[in-house]
Write the structure tokens for this entry.
Amino acid sequence: MRTIIEPFRIKVVEPIRMTTRDERLHLLREAGHNVFLLRSEDVLLDLLTDSGTSAMSAEQWAGMMRGDESYAGSPSYYRFEEAVREVFGFQYVIPTHQGRAAERILFQTLCSPGDMVPSNTHFDTTRANVEAVGARAVDLLVPEGLRPSDVHPFKGNMDVARLEALIQEEGVDRIPLVMLTMTNNSGGGQPVSMANVRAVAEVCRSHGIPLYVDACRFAENAYLIKLREEGFEDRSVREIALEIFSWADGCTMSAKKDGLANIGGFVATRDEELARQQRNLLILTEGFPTYGGLAGRDLEAIAIGLREVLEEDYLEYRLASVRYLGEAIAAGGVPIVQPPGGHAVYIDAAAFLPHVTPLELPGQTLVAELYLEGGIRGVEVGTVMFGRRDPETGQESAAPMELVRLALPRRVYTQSHVDYMVEAILAFAQRRERVGGFRFTYQAPVLRHFTARFEPLYSLA
Ligand code: P71
């Protein structure tokens, strides 16, 4: 059969509420035109994030009931540890409440002030945690990764020549670890190839530098290797994932993505002494090493989710729905980051709304309009999120790209939901020349996108 279907049937449903355009106009105004400030009940299709928003399986809910809440030595921890060892191959496994806690523990135990941590692209929380210990986060993405319309199978790859050059310039003593973010969320959910993992690992090994993977979306990355990299067509995704991690010394993971869980994360390593130090830090802020700030029931859900996410019928459906959304809107003339990645479609708002200048916030304009058009909530990844206002002069500067991310929660929306998204986006495309931009009416000094308020420079009605 050629039709790819959702490989599950629905046992529990959660109603979503239809709203009218007039209602949405009112709700959007009340929220200062910032979709982060909407109530989620007022959103019809919520594509804000794929993090913590997955639907759990019947098996995961059964695991929740088995969850053992003992403070120390819970069987739920041992099932979790066994799943991580089996899927990733790392001996020492330390649970945390989510990804950023794993990052903090990793960088606090490995980095000193003045160090550098290279990555393909650090995710925001990773960069912030590197900087919080006084080190510098350096992005070494291949150049095609920064060109939205270029089609290349592995736009998440690290530039290996630049890595080698950085090590020569700075010296190995300044680089306590190298990271690879798989898939590369900040760069469009683009995968890293196995050839790149091997090449980066070889450079690291030759200098004795440990390599860590940010494994948030490891299964999507492994499946994209199977689809796009020569020699992997006949390997199972499980084998591909194991090979990726066999090249690494450890990983951090937010289990809210490819753990198919609503909360949780971990740091894992082969280094016994490092794990001992990390457990001591864990006890200080997260909890005892057999629960790490999670309930036993969460550990059960993650253990089951990490195995379910490798089922290839699931991954085929997952990647097909992202590709379907991306290809359908691209065919309708909407410029997107090509090719569609693992967890989201990224619209190039600068190319889509060329008459709205970067400081008139084209991404914010598109996010507001998609909510008005169809009750769809995406997220701006452009000047609102990464631009800056000079605190002295009030001068605004723009971000390098103006993207809008439409992230698909896992196992949540069906084909007809995706068809509705396509219809709404293409309906907006018809009238895109008539929209103007937005301006800030309030912004916080840091992480302004979460709480900012805006007003339109044109009539929304
Ligand atoms: C996403 C998120 C969630 C998020 C976090 C912060 C601001 C906005 C949205 C989280 C990631 C991620 C990667 C590659 C580490 C984390 C942190 N992504 N690495 O995409 O994508 O994990 O949220 O569990 O702490 O919406 P955590």
In short: The chain has two domains: 21-50+311-456, 58-308. The chain has 16 helices and 16 strands. The first strand starts at residue 45 and ends at 46.
